[in-house]
Amino acid sequence: DGEYTGKSYGGPGTALGKFRTCHSINYDPRVNKLIVTDRENHRHQYFDFDPGSPNKFEFSSAFQTPQLQRPCGIRMDFGNGHAIVPALGGPVGILDGENQLVSVIRVSVLLGASGHLHPHDATFLPNGDIVVATWNPGRISYWRRLPRKHGARPRVDDKAEL
């Protein structure tokens, strides 16, 4: 059961704290804030909140990842501080704890011919593997995490599909 508090936030627009397509909301334990994916403004926005009162929902900051246009959401990997961002145009990005892009899975390039187009959601599994859901026609793909070579740094593919 629940009761509507009579509070709502945001509204249409491009200004910070406003949305063109408020597509996803999640809690980011790395910074103790709510994070809203604003798909058509190509950004994620952080908001301060008070779980004890619906009166506090205040814009805090925003970030964009140019390689991930039209992001559909963001989910945290609670084990290592990473986040995963599916982008409607085809790639899925992995962000580090500072929300910097460290890896790109080019889902639509690699699997588009078999119907894996338009990543719409993605999540980390407890073992570090990733599951991606695509929109229209609707497919789910499973990606196994590969071990990193000793001393290797994460690499961002500059030719990620946009």
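The record above closes out task 2.4. Task 2.5 opens with a second protein, given below.
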Amino acid sequence: GGDLVAAPFVGQREVLERPEECGGEAALEVDLRKAHMQLVEVDHTQQALQLLTRAQAAYKERKYHAGAAVCAARMAEEYLEEGNLLAASKLYERLRRERSEGEELSAGPWARWPLLRIHALERSVVCACRALGLKEGPAVCERS
């Protein structure tokens, strides 16, 4: 056996109790700890949702229905990942049924992307299963 040696970085987040044991890297260690705490404090989901909302609004303004649908799908995924099942299921249902004014089902992103409708339906089922407290959804929903 060998002697037990204390780790060089002992102490709280911004304080090193024995910086002399760290060599010249004590300041770097403190900076890394501060950067890590800043990263933990940032809510990436909210930032992603804000950016997706802006992108979706820009797509709708330019009448790019496919781009708006993709943004809605990604927003629904963000909501699902953070556990906001109500918002996610509403977006998936809207995606599944949505058509622009005067647009037939054969036009727009739905005719070109039938998999988007299938994906939205599957994810709607997953949301409903999670809302019911089921750990796993039906096997058919696991492919996407």
